[in-house]
Amino acid sequence: MTTICVLYPDLLGTYGDGGNGLATLERARRRGLDATLVQAGLNDEVPDADLYLLGGGEDGPQRLAADLLRRSSFAARVRDGAYVVAVCAGLQILGLTFCVEGNEEVEGLGLVDVVTSRGERRSVGELATHVGSQLLVGFENHGGRTTLHGGVEPFGTVVKGRGNDAKHDGYRTKNIWATYAHGPVLAMNPWFCDEVLATVTSEELEPLSSAADLLYQERCRVLAS
Amino acid sequence: MGKSTKLRDDVASAAVRAVNRLSRMTGRGSGTVVGGRVGMKISPDLVASLSRGRTVMLVSGTNGKTTTTSMIVAGWGLPVTTNQTGANMPAGHVAALVASTSAQAALEVDEAWLPETLAKTRPRVVVLLNLSRDQLDRANEVRQMAERWRKALEGHYDAELVVVANASDPLVVYAAEVAANVLWCDVPTTWLADAVSCPKCTLGISHVGSQWHCSCGFAKPTKVTTLLGDELVIDGVSVALDLSMPGEFNRSNAAMALTALHNVGVDLDEAVLRINAVQSVVGRFSVRRWNGHVLRLLLAKNPSGFEAMLATLANDSSDVWVAINARIADGRDPSWLYDVPFEKLRGHRVYCFGDRRLDLATRLDYAQVEFVIVGDDTQVPVSKETISLLANYTAFSDWLEKSEP
Predict the structure, then answer these.
(1) Is the Cβ of A124 closer than 8 Å to some Cβ of chain B?
(2) At a CB cut-off of 8 Å and minimum separation 6, what does B115 contact?
C-alpha cells in the first residue's frame, strides 16, 4: 500500500495545496492502486509515508512548520528515501536557509543545498516551465529568490513567470520534486502527478483520461500564447 | 476650513457629479468610480471634507461587507449615504458622499483601504466582520491584513471611535484589541483555517467548541456585548432576529449591523424589523430568469464564502450551477477552488460555467462530484424547480446582467 501524507495542511495550505494530495490519491484509486491519504496537522507526529506533500504558507506559519519539521523524524525519513513534492514555502523549507518577515533568516532542514533570500519584489502570476519535453503550468505567489548550489538540478526552465530566479524553477533530486507553482500543481498537470505516482509506486501506469486533461490543454494554450 | 480649500472642494464635488452624470448618460459606466477619481485629482482630501459633520460607519472584512452595509442602511431608519454598488475604494466613497447630503453615512470599505479610510472619514463606528484568504494574488497574506488593521487602530487617536468586532475570528480580535472602545460580538464563524497559527506568536491556537485560546495568552474575548446563538442578545436585551435572506452567515452580519446601530442610539426593536424585511442585496439571493430557467443567484467568491453558501443548499439531488471567473476583481489565481469543500455536492449534478469552468470541472472530478462542462452549444435541460447558481464576483455580475427579474 502507498501512503500519501499531506504535511501541515493547517500551516502550509494557503493556496489550495490540499488539492495535490487529493489528485494523487484519486489518480491512484482510478487505476486500482492501493493508496491512502493521511493529513498530519501541527499537533501530530510526522507519520510513516511513501510520499510527503508540502504546500505554501504565510511567513509566520512557514517558520513554525520549519521549526516543527526540524524537531521531527521528517528529515531522517527523506534521507532514507521517502519521496517529497514540495511547493512554494515547502520548497524553501527543505533548503539551507530562507527569509521571512522582512529579511529575518531562518534555518531550513538542509536536505538540499539551496538558499532562498528575499527577492527584490514579490513574484505573483502565471508560471510555466519546461520540464524535459513537458510544459508545467501553474500560478506562483512568493517573495523568494532561490539559488541552487553544489550541482543541484533545477526542476524546470522558466517560460513564463519567475520561479527561482526568472531562469529556473524549483529543483529535482533523486526523491524530491520542488516547484514554485503552488496550490493544485499536481491536479492541473496530470503528467506530473502520474510521474510522481509511477516513481513512488514503481508501477507502470495506464493512461487515464480526466477533466484535468482538458484543463491542462487549455492552460498550455493560454500560457504559450 | 480655509476659503480656498472650501472652494476647491466645491469645485471637486461638482466635477464628481458632472463626470458621473456623463458616464451614466454615455452608458460607459455605472457612474461611480470615474467621477470620484476626477474629484480626488482636484482635491486629494475630498473624502475627509465630505465626511465632516456626518455620522459615518465603516464596514470591512473579507465576506459580508456589502450585505452588512445594506443592513445598516435599512436598519438605521433615517436617510443614509452609502456606496451601494460595491465601489468600496476611495473613488467610490467620494462618489457616494457627493451624491447625498444625509447626515448618516454607511460605507463598505475594501480591506486594504481601511487604514486610509479610517484616518480620513473619522467614523463613529467601524464594523470588522472577518478575515480569511481571498484574492491572494492582490492581498498576498491574510495575516498582513490583520497587522495593517491593528497598526491603523493603534495609531487612530479618536476617543469617540467604537469598533464592533467579531470575537470568534482570531485575526479580527488581533486587529481590534488595540482599540480603546471595542464592542465584541460572539457570532458563529465557521471558517477558521487562516487562524490556526496564532497571529501573535505563531504557535497553534486551540479551538474548543466556539472558544479558542493560545498558550501565549491570546484568547477569545470574554466580555461580549453581542451573543448570537439560537437567540440574538445585544447588551443583555433579546432581539427578534428573523431574516428574509438565507444563511447562518447573514444572521452574524445582522447581529453586527444591529450592534453598530444600537451604539448610535437606533432603537433595536424597530431596526431589526427593518433588517428582517431585506430580501436581497444588489442581486444577491435574488431569483432571476434566463432562457426558461429560474435561478437563485448566490455570490460566493472565496473558500469561506463558498463553504457558507454551500451550507444553504437543499440537501437533495437537485442540479446546481456554478460559475467561476479569474479576472482581476476575482483574483487571477483559482487555486482556492481546492479549499472549497465541493465534496458536499456529491449526489448533485453540477453544471460548470464561467471563464474557468475547466478548473472547476477538474476540482469536481477529483472530488467525485458529477459535472457537466457548459460550452456555448451545450443544452442545459430546463428544470421546473428554482436552480441555485453560485458564482464568484465577476461571474455573478455577468449573470445578474444577462438574467431578468
Answers:
(1) yes
(2) B148, B149, B151, B152
Who among B142, B204, B335 is closest to A139 (CB)?
B335
Q: Are A128 and A137 spatial neighbours (Cβ–Cβ below 8 Å)?
A: yes
d(CA B189, CA B41): 40
Fold of B287-402: Protein-Tyrosine Phosphatase; Chain A (3.90.190)
**pLDDT digit string, tens, across residues A63-90:** 999 999 999 999 999 999 999 999 999 9
Ranges of each domain in chain B: 1-44, 45-276, 287-402
On whether the pTM is more than 0.90, the answer is no
CATH class of B45-276: alpha beta
**Chain A residues whose beta carbon lies within 8 Å of the beta carbon of residue B367:** 22
State the cell numbers at A218: 487549455
Q: Does the interface ipTM go beyond 0.85?
A: yes
Least Cα separation, residue A64 to chain B (angstroms)? 7
What CATH number is given for A2-98+109-224 in this structure?
3.40.50.880
Identify the closest residue of chain B to A13 by CA–CA distance: B339
Is there a contact between B140 and A124 if contact means CB atoms under 8 Å apart?
yes
Number of CB pairs < 8 Å for A and B? 107
pLDDT in tens, B330-378: 989 999 999 999 999 999 999 999 999 999 999 999 999 999 999 887 8
Question: What does the domain layout of chain A look like in residue ranges?
Answer: 2-98+109-224
A51/B contact by beta carbon, under 8 A: no
Contact B333 A183 (CB under 8 A): yes
Q: How far is CA A161 from the centre of its chain?
A: 17
Answer for the pair B226, B252: CB distance below 8 angstroms, yes or no: no
